[in-house]
Amino acid sequence: MNAQTKWVENLLLSSVICVLISQSAKAQPQGPDKLGIVSYTYRNSFAINFEATMDTIQSLGFNNIEFSNLFKQEPEFIRASLDKRRMYCTSYGVSKDDVFNKTDEVGRVAKSLGAEYVRLGWLPLKSPLTAEDAEKLAKDFDSIGKLLKTKYGLTFVYHNHGYEFSKWTHETLFDLIVQKTNPEYVSFELDIFWAHIADGDPAGLLKKYPDRFRLMHLKDLKKGTKHDLTGTTDTNNDVALGTGEIDIPQILKAASKSKIKYYYIEDESSNVNQQLPVSINFMKGKLK
């Protein structure tokens, strides 16, 4: 084989390799999928073996995680764990104390994780929420949201938990919070489970405020479960999507006309290993 023939052969081989690499790159996701999972679903497993849990989540087909806990890991370690699997943290959930009193630290951690959203999902209430509480929260949310947006490029979202649906005039305290916050700095994550159990009508909320919701928690409620405003229920009332009493197709139809960007499956039950595959199968083809 002369030198010219060898050169042509190497050129052809290089071209084939480039095509294969290009095809492989195209096959890989170019960003986070619309359907993700909340880390709280695997809270017990994450606490035991973080990396093995990441492998499990990836094996189920997820590349998008909303982290509601760092599980005693540094954010840089979590980011590296995500990057090596070509996965993403799109939302970072924090406590009221952290987002109210350590907003800059929350922003720094969220940016380290690669998140787009910072989510507050629980208010440690000592008494039922009042209109005065809701108005104060709205002002605080605006301040927090403005800082996270202007300094870190993050969107602050509040996640409903049921107790916000007590009556306020002809609406609810949740309506009051939505209406009193600045859309430029405050958005919302709709947890359909907690809205439903408080008789808050998830689909109706999406139709009423199509521009305010950015994220959604996908969960289903065991048929016949008591409805109330406590924001609590037995975790095993959380059942596989499509097997409970929530009309999820109707909610997704309303969501398709809203500004929701990411949908996260969350399963708080002790039956997650049996239920999650059912939920994943239920959601196939439902998000366009």
Kindly summarize this structure in a few lines.
The chain has 288 residues and is α/β, with parallel strands linked by helices.
Based on the model shown, name its key terms.
288 residues; alpha/beta; TIM Barrel; 2 domains; eight-stranded parallel barrel; 12 helices; 12 strands; 45% helix; disordered N terminus
The number of E-state strands comes to 12
Profile the largest sheet: 8 strands, parallel, barrel
CATH superfamily of the largest domain: Divalent-metal-dependent TIM barrel enzymes
- Helix and strand run: HEHHEHEHHEHEEEHEHHEEEHEH
CATH class descriptor name of the largest domain: Alpha Beta
Q: What is the share of helical residues?
A: 40-55%
What is the CA-atom radius of gyration, in angstroms? 22 Å
Order of strands, main sheet, comes to: 1-2-3-4-5-8-9-12
Name the structural class: alpha/beta
How much beta, percentage-wise? 15-25%
* Second-tier CATH architecture of the largest domain: Alpha-Beta Barrel
What shape does the CA trace take? globular
Structure characterization notes:
Helix 7 runs parallel beside helix 8 (173-180) and helix 10 runs parallel beside helix 11. The longest helix has 25 residues, at 3-27. By secondary structure, the chain is an alpha/beta fold. It contains twelve helices and twelve strands. The termini are far apart. Strand 4 (117-120), helix 7 (131-152) and strand 5 form a beta-alpha-beta unit. The chain has helices at 3-27, 43-48, 50-59, 75-84, 96-101, 103-113, 131-152, 173-180, 192-197, 202-208, 248-255, 272-283; strands spanning 35-38, 64-67, 88-94, 117-120, 155-159, 167-168, 171-172, 186-191, 213-218, 220-221, 238-239, 262-265. Residues 2-27 have low confidence and may be disordered. The strands form three sheets. Strands 1-2-3-4-5-8-9-12 form an eight-stranded parallel β-barrel, surrounded by four helices. Strands 6-7 form a two-stranded antiparallel sheet. The protein has two domains: 1-30; 33-283, Divalent-metal-dependent TIM barrel enzymes (TIM Barrel, Alpha-Beta Barrel), CATH 3.20.20. The radius of gyration is 22 Å and the shape is globular. Helix content is 45%, strand content 17%.
